[in-house]
Hints:
The protein is of the alpha/beta class. It has one domain (23-180): Rossmann fold (3-Layer(aba) Sandwich). Helix content is 28%, strand content 30%. The chain is built from five helices and seven strands, in the order αβαβαββαβαββ. It has helices spanning 17-34, 51-56, 70-83, 120-130, 165-174; strands spanning 41-45, 62-67, 88-92, 105-111, 131-142, 177-191, 197-209. It has a seven-stranded mixed beta sheet. The protein is globular, with a radius of gyration of 16 Å.
Amino acid sequence: MAGTPFDEAASTWDQQPRRVALAKAIGEAILREAQPTCDTNVFDYGCGTGLLGLYLLPHVASVTGADNSAGMLDVLRTKIAEGRFDNMKALRLDLQSDPVPDDRYEMVVTGMVMHHVADVSRVLQAFHRMLVPGGVLCLADLDTEPGNFHPPEVAASVHHHGFNREELKARLADLGFVGATDVTATTMRKETADNGEQKFPVFLITARRGE
């Protein structure tokens, strides 16, 4: 598996407070909307350094963090080792090209990842397969935006400038998910070139795999 643009950024990823705050806001929305329990095994796709998965960890049975960036996973594995988290593990995986793992989960979560995924349909199909019947998908990402959320240096890794919530829920329904709902998990604010400020809503869509 080739390296990713995120490998070099991994060592300093957590040093930006807005990233930590974003993961916390998404995690809070997941706890509120999906209500995982101490019996819930979670698959965190595009886990990065584990900010979201580690936030959820005290509330669930286990978290498997998966990412295609070796650099990000190295940081996460260090956190797991230092925290002695025996109910969390890190897995290198790209669901656009790798086989779907055999393990099944009560919950799949992904935070600010899908706009970096070229083949969204393939990954959503994989999520459906990885959930047990009745399991919950929690998908957090940007509302459709004009393309100025990301700086130019990471533009090559961005395949979608956010998503239309209703269109995404319809795609989930076509794949066999039911009961999709959406909320705004948080709103990010970024300065613009003219020294103004632009707001970028981040949604959380939850849906269940049909029985």
